[in-house]
Amino acid sequence: MSTWMVTGGAGYIGSHVVEAFRAQGIGVVVVDDLSSGHEAFVPADVPFVRTDVQDREAVAAALDEHRVQGVVHLAGFKYAGVSVTRPLHTYTQNVTGTVALLQAMADAGTTDIVFSSSAAVYGTPTVDLVTETTPTLPESPYGESKLVGEWLLRDQARALEGTSTPLRHTSLRYFNVVGSGHDHLYDTSPHNLFPLVLDALVQGRTPTVFGTDYPTPDGTCVRDYVHVADLATSHVAAARALEGGHDLAPVYNLGSGDGVSVRQIMSAVASVTGTPFTPQEAPRRPGDPARIVASGELAARDLDWQMRHTLEQMVESAWRARQAAEAATP
């Protein structure tokens, strides 16, 4: 049985990827510095290495010790808006960290990597439906750092062509990841829409909409919203394809093909939670494009990508996990 390393495996998305590997009987080891992850999200029987991916020696040692076949690289600083005011931190975490990881993989002879990229690489697209060939024009240091990560994989793979340890890779461009596949795993980001809205309701506050003057039908941002468990399933599909020697595209959009506005999200939350409210309105946040909606056709063909959850089911699962976390808090 092969083993895969999940960097950032104690985080919201990473912990779901870990569970998806385990569900298919694939061994997994987690690397996370817990800067935003939670050790409680790592199953007790999963090896956990608490270190930053920039620690090349520690990561190489873990790759070697656990005889890791490949890496799902999710560790990084993921806040587009904050990256505008913290560009050096963003590049250090996302670019320097990826360089160190690739060096550690080369040291250990680890050949496969699935990279967590982002829709932020597209900036503000001029097309209604983004595809993998849509020009990349990132508008934040975060988006730029993710695009550089893709380039690093491409260039390292070229450099290792014809060697005994070639690099097989693909990058998955995420859109808005929401919901929960397990009640004990939930999004704790201080910047993502779902936790911001649900935290406000739990605390008796009125949720806030950031930006109501976008050139969209209702003035709020339009996004792809995809369920985290569906996302995790496609990570494992990508890992298995690479391990099996199958050719994958360099990048895939994990998109829904159908946009949802922030106001629509607010309405769904009010309906599911049974808490009617009129959201407060605040100015736009920096780095937030008006609309990004992507086709997931290529990923559906190669990576078992499907939208298996409705918007209401996404909200219901997120709310259930949030309530479980609240109940577990002393």
TrEMBL record:
It comes from Cellulomonas bogoriensis 69B4 = DSM 16987. The keyword Magnesium does not apply. It is an enzyme of class 5 (isomerase). Pathway: Carbohydrate metabolism; galactose metabolism. Gene3D superfamilies: NAD(P)-binding Rossmann-like Domain, UDP-galactose 4-epimerase, domain 1. InterPro entries: Epimerase_deHydtase (IPR001509), NAD(P)-bd_dom_sf (IPR036291), UDP_G4E (IPR005886). Pfam families: Epimerase. SUPFAM superfamilies: NAD(P)-binding Rossmann-fold domains (SSF51735). Keywords: Carbohydrate metabolism, Isomerase, NAD. One of its GO terms (biological process) is galactose catabolic process via UDP-galactose, Leloir pathway. It catalyses: UDP-alpha-D-glucose = UDP-alpha-D-galactose. One of its GO terms (molecular function) is UDP-glucose 4-epimerase activity. Residues 5-255 form the NAD-dependent epimerase/dehydratase domain. Belongs to the NAD(P)-dependent epimerase/dehydratase family. Its EC number is 5.1.3.2. This is UDP-glucose 4-epimerase. NCBIfam families: galE. The keyword NAD applies.
